[in-house]
Specification:
single chain; about 425 residues; Nucleotidyltransferase, domain 5; six-stranded mixed beta sheet; five-stranded mixed beta sheet; 12 helices; cytoplasm; iron; TsaD; acyltransferase
């Protein structure tokens, strides 16, 4: 089985192609391609502008698709086109198809132009011996995220699904951040594999029983604690009441004049500072509340006032970055471990862009060893913590029985995972 996945929920344009072969004890999983095009244009503005991101997705999707198919060795030029310009439409049937494509992409005119040129020049991925498409399904992020960005990816998936006659699998972006943890670390000496969810829940299996689990999904747009009884069964037990943790990093960096995105910049400065003495003390909002919710707006305000009252010397910025990072991590770790204890979970799962933070990974592992070394900790590889299409492909695999017609696919910016 091959799945082509599309990710456009924010400012990263991603397309991945995976090949899966199911076995009794495990699922062998081969990454044929995983291409991500990040939009650096937003750095000068200190944040993502949805309509600007939409335009960038329109420009990037076809080149990224071409690169993904090429790397997967699935890109073949139509007869007679070679290096020549794209062929003209040859018959009325093709004209009718293009009219439907134009209707699907009526709000993405630039994407329509790019895609029609691509489809005229390159063959549909098709296995003539088997009499079916080489790609079995197209998985696409349909929410949550920035609505203009989501619709570009959704409409692109609909267009490909219609033209290539391949079913689509709608994927929840938050769930994908969780399920990417089922990918074993990629290295040159071992094939990537996804653990079989049925085997995970079977205590007789050699694969460790991971459920129930609590997942912390933390990014620029989300900070959620999700109770997970099994794959596909989720309940949100806590979330931010205002700013997400990643958003707090970004706004703090902007206050200090450090650029965008703020999380990696603050983390790097804190790392280089090598834990200097901290005369600065910032609040840890809601760290001792009895629930599992978060709040970072008060921390952001405290950073703003502290910065106004001090000269932003190099030393001060180092101290402030160290304290900002620690304040956010303290809340994330304490709340998650509290939830793990209260719900007696067997596993803590991290996901989202902030989970790439090295100090978060280190401190989570250290705290768990002290509190309960029996709890498993799953953290994705750093390159799969941020938005990518490979995680969408993995989630698509777990929902392979939910293939749908392109006609029923819609974007939902406020899509929730579980209740």
């Amino acid at each position: 089985m091959k799945i082509l996945a599309i990710e456009t929920s924010c400012d990263d344009t991603g397309i991945a192609i995976i090949e899966i072969s199911d076995k009794k004890q495990e699922t062998n999983f081969k990454v044929l391609s995983n291409i991500v095009s990040s939009q650096t244009i937003h750095q000068q503005y200190g944040g993502v502008f949805p309509m600007m991101a939409k335009r960038e997705h329109q420009a990037n999707l076809v080149p990224v698709l071409k690169e993904a198919l090429q790397k997967a060795k699935l890109l073949k030029i139509q007869k007679g086109t070679s290096s020549a310009p794209a062929t003209k439409i040859k018959n009325q049937n093709d004209n009718a198809k293009l009219k439907i494509l134009e209707k699907i992409l009526k709000k993405e005119s630039d994407l329509y132009k790019n895609l029609t040129k691509f489809l005229e020049k390159y063959k549909k991925p098709f296995d003539h011996d088997q009499g079916k498409p080489v790609i079995d399904a197209i998985a696409v992020t349909h929410g949550p995220g920035l609505e203009p960005c989501l619709w570009v990816g959704v409409n692109f998936a609909k267009a490909l699904s219609y033209f290539w006659k391949i079913p689509v699998i709608p994927v929840n972006h938050i769930e994908a951040h969780i399920l990417v943890n089922w990918l074993k670390p990629i290295n040159e000496n071992s094939k990537p594999k996804i653990k079989n969810p049925k085997q995970i829940q079977n205590p007789k299996s050699k694969i460790q029983n991971l459920f129930p689990a609590v997942s912390l999904v933390v990014s620029g747009g989300h900070t959620q604690l999700i109770l997970m009884k099994k794959i596909g069964k989720y309940k949100i037990i806590g979330e931010t009441r205002d700013d997400a943790a990643g958003e707090c990093f970004d706004k703090a960096a902007k206050i200090l004049g450090l650029g965008y995105p703020g999380g990696p910049i603050i983390s790097e400065i804190a790392f280089k500072a090598n834990n200097p003495p901290q005369p600065i003390k910032l609040p840890r909002p809601m760290i001792n509340s009895k629930d599992y919710d978060f709040s970072f707006s008060g921390l952001k305000t405290a950073i703003l006032y502290a910065a106004k009252d001090n000269v932003l010397t190099e030393k001060y910025i180092e101290e402030m970055c160290t304290e900002i990072q620690q304040a956010i991590l303290d809340v994330l770790i304490k709340k998650t471990i509290k939830a793990a204890k209260d719900f007696k979970v067997k596993t803590i799962i991290l996901g989202g862009g902030v989970s790439a933070n090295q100090e978060l990974r280190k401190q989570f592992a250290s705290k768990l060893q002290i509190v309960n070394s029996q709890i498993n900790l799953l953290i994705p590889p750093k390159e799969l913590s941020t938005d990518n299409a490979l995680m969408i492909a993995i989630a698509g695999y777990f929902h392979k029985n939910k293939k749908a017609s392109w006609k029923n696919l819609e974007a939902n910016a406020n899509l929730r995972v579980g209740k």
